[in-house]
Amino acid sequence: MLLAAENETLYQHIDTGLLFLRKQYIETGYIDFIARKTGIGKAEELAKAIITLHDVAKGYDEYQERVRAGKKFPKHEFFSAYIADKTLNLDTEQKTMAELAIIWHHIAMRSPRFWVELRNWRKYNAPEVLNLRDPNRLLSILREVCLKWKISVISVENIPQKIGIYEIEDYIKKLYKLSETNTINLYLKTIYYVRILILCDNYAASINRATATREKIPIFLRDMSPPENIFKVRKQIEKLTKSIRRA
């Protein structure tokens, strides 16, 4: 059993995040709004792929050893973004957006300058090599998720079995160059997905971990309008719009 945290499996974390995505963003039509704003037709599948892969590096041996020892997962977002780069079948812009969203989902509150985070790698005692000696467990989870949620843009078989710090450094340099080609536009499009990922990630963690209580659920989740309220407001706006047009 692969863990995302001490009291939460990796499958639970991904699946709960996708359930929240469906309830809060897909069924309410917000993901269609993002598609219109960003010009990305596959906005829903892109969001699903980002949530599926955002913690995928936690399934590697070194991070699994850490969680079982009660330790955290420093820099896992960089390894996860690297894995996304190897497995996502998307055009360059969408792929870059997905990878940036994954990297930013933990560090965005500090700074969008993700390349700076490489300087304090040893400060956080982050692993310099990840190994996947028995890939079948992780591949099985990803295949099950992709089948259940109809995600076709992830090539699970391309999951690397070993990732080193030098590969991460080269990858970050490449990602930096890609992100610099159209910085403002790319940032404005990606931030929609960063927001969704942060909320889905925190919701899944709050719900699944044994210590979760309403008081411990982040306030930005507690304050979100439930979908049923969104639908009520939408109906009232539609009625008002129709009455104005008739007048």
Structure characterization notes:
This protein has 247 residues and is mainly alpha-helical. It has one domain: Hypothetical protein af1432. It has helices at 10-26, 30-38, 43-53, 61-68, 76-87, 92-107, 136-148, 165-180, 183-208, 219-222, 227-246; strands at residues 3-5, 8-9, 129-131, 162-164. The strands form two sheets. Strands 1-2 form a two-stranded antiparallel sheet. It has a two-stranded antiparallel sheet with strand order 3-4. Strand 1 (3-5) and strand 2 (8-9) form a beta hairpin. Helix 1 runs antiparallel to helix 3 and helix 1 (10-26) packs across helix 9. The mean pLDDT is 90.
| End-to-end Cα distance | 62 Å
Number of domains: 1
Order of helix and strand elements from N to C terminus:
EEHHHHHHEHEHHHH
Rg over CA atoms, rounded to whole Å, is 19 Å
Strand proportion, as a percent range, falls in under 5%
Helix content: 55-70%
Number of strands: 4
Could you say which structural class the secondary elements and strand pairing correspond to?
A: mainly alpha
Number of helices: 11
Q: Name the average pLDDT.
A: 90
Strand order of the largest sheet: 1-2
**Which architecture per CATH?**
Orthogonal Bundle
Give a summary of the structure in a few sentences.
The chain has 247 residues and is mainly alpha-helical.
Which helices and strands appear, and what pairs or packs with what?
Elements: E1 3-5, E2 8-9, H1 10-26, H2 30-38, H3 43-53, H4 61-68, H5 76-87, H6 92-107, E3 129-131, H7 136-148, E4 162-164, H8 165-180, H9 183-208, H10 219-222, H11 227-246
Antiparallel strand pairs: 1-2, 3-4
